[in-house]
């Protein structure tokens, strides 16, 4: 039988954890007292270099944030898995501003009344309770947690669920950023389904698939006879969306001339069909998505900076599969369970297959994994072995140690660029700065190495 001390320890271990990072003993004592009733287990460390603890929520209150602190934050193990709140003295600080662009939720300056902070912490506690209750009541044919149409049990996915839950209750424009196949459209659909617009239409548009000379007509519609071939009136995507949601996928592939017209619609809510003088009002909520880093897209001439800031009321980064802990294996089991049910079979994975799944980087993310499982399910008899998997051996990883005597300048350059990209976790803006080149030059180099998708036509060619 458990004694009272053991029961208290058990209850504390089940509570969400709040990590306080500060050297201010007065602030620490104040927050410990105020947050004691917020259903968090409170832990304190002195600085960002201490990675001893896991946490669901982090309050960071530096005396004076430096560039070193900013670097420690960008590599902190909780940076992508926990929610962060900043407390500061209110003095302008570029490092704190940079942290706000890298996922920090709130920044409170010169706090004299701590009531807003306590209310926010309580809101976080309620969200954690909501997700925990949802995990207990949901029924799956797999072990994966689910929020809306999104699947995943890793910490980065639970942080994504919390972000989507918050933004779905607003009408703010959302900008989804993530690699191809990581689930941007699924995230957009979840935002729509969890919002008050769920009963209205959701229209998804792949901007990269639209012909350059027809983009305006597709988005805003056209009248009969507006141009050669316009034999009928056409209702554009903005009208089709009504009071629902419009997803503009791969927004960075839209011609810049059309981006300026889109900006005017977002600012005024007004548009005209091609060939019409009638001003129409749009009530649709816009969600934009891209597989490019926005800063890189702006610098390379694929995205207008003013359009980005108009769209990015609430930017959300969708994590790639390789950053989702054990989700790859659990997703594979999930997809297999559904294929077994659909085909009335009982196929299983061999252990070595799961080892391959765990070690592979999945550049095509969830889409690649799903297609891999479906293909293997078709080929296998009863047990899925490595013989039924695609050939992953052609994926080469260039290491820094590959440069030595006999290595050509061209190969040495390639090795340096690839290793720098890996060290920067594929952040091309950061890698370009470290290499001392522009992002556009980096893209040109990667194209030569076959490490990036072929570039689109130039704007002059596509207009």
Automatic annotation (TrEMBL):
Domain of life: Bacteria
Single Gene Ontology BP annotation: regulation of DNA-templated transcription
InterPro entries to which the protein is assigned, alphabetical: AAA+_ATPase, AAA_lid_NorR, Homeodomain-like_sf, HTH_Fis, P-loop_NTPase, Sigma_54_int, Sigma_54_int_dom_CS
UniProt-listed CDD domains: AAA
Sigma-54 factor interaction domain segment(s): 150-378
Entry GO MF terms: ATP binding; sequence-specific DNA binding
A family per Pfam: Sigma54_activat
Keywords: ATP-binding, Nucleotide-binding, Transcription, Transcription regulation
PANTHER family registered for this protein in UniProt: TRANSCRIPTIONAL REGULATORY PROTEIN (PTHR32071)
Name used for this protein in its record: Luminescence regulatory protein LuxO
Organism: Methylophaga muralis
Highest classification ranks of the organism: Bacteria, Pseudomonadati, Pseudomonadota, Gammaproteobacteria, Thiotrichales
């Amino acid at each position: 039988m458990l004694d009272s001390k053991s029961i208290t320890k058990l209850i504390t271990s089940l509570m969400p954890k709040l990590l306080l990072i500060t050297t201010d003993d007065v602030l620490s004592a104040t927050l410990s007292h105020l947050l004691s009733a917020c259903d968090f287990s409170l832990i304190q460390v002195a600085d960002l270099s201490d990675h001893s603890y896991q946490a669901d929520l982090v309050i960071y209150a530096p005396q004076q944030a430096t560039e070193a602190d900013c670097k420690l934050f960008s590599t902190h193990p909780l940076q992508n898995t926990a929610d962060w709140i900043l407390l500061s003295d209110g003095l302008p600080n570029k490092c704190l501003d940079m942290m706000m662009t890298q996922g920090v939720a709130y920044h409170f300056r010169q706090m004299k009344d701590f009531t807003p902070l306590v209310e926010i912490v309580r809101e976080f506690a309620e969200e954690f309770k909501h997700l925990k209750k949802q995990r207990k009541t949901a029924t799956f044919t797999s072990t994966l947690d689910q929020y809306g149409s999104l699947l995943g049990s890793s910490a980065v996915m639970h942080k994504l669920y919390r972000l989507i839950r918050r933004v779905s209750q607003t009408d703010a424009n959302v900008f989804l950023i993530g690699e191809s196949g990581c689930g941007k459209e699924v995230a957009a659909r979840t935002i729509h389904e969890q919002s008050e617009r769920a009963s209205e239409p959701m229209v998804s548009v792949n901007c990269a698939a639209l012909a350059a000379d027809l983009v305006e007509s597709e988005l805003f519609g056209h009248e009969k006879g507006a141009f050669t071939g316009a034999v009928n009136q056409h209702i554009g995507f903005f009208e089709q969306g009504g009071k629902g949601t419009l997803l503009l996928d791969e927004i960075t592939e839209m011609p810049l001339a059309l981006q300026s017209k889109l900006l005017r619609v977002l600012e005024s809510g007004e548009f005209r069909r091609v060939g019409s003088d009638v001003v129409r009002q749009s009530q649709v909520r816009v969600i934009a998505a891209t597989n490019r880093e926005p800063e890189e897209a702006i610098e390379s001439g694929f995205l207008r900076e003013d359009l980005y800031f108009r769209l990015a009321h609430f930017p959300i980064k969708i994590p790639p599969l390789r950053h989702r802990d054990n989700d790859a294996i659990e997703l594979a089991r999930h997809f297999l369970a559904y294929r077994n049910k659909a085909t009335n079979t009982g196929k299983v994975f061999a252990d070595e297959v799961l080892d391959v799944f765990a070690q592979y980087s999945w550049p095509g993310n969830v889409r690649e994994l799903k297609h891999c499982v479906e293909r293997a399910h078709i080929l296998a008899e009863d047990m899925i072995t490595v013989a039924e998997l695609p050939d992953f051996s052609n994926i080469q990883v260039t290491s820094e140690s590959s440069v030595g005597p006999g290595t050509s300048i061209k190969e040495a350059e390639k090795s340096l660029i690839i290793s720098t990209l890996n060290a920067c976790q594929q952040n091309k803006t950061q890698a370009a700065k470290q290499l001392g080149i522009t992002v556009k030059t980096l893209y040109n180099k990667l194209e030569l190495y076959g490490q990036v998708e072929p570039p689109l036509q130039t704007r002059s060619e596509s207009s």
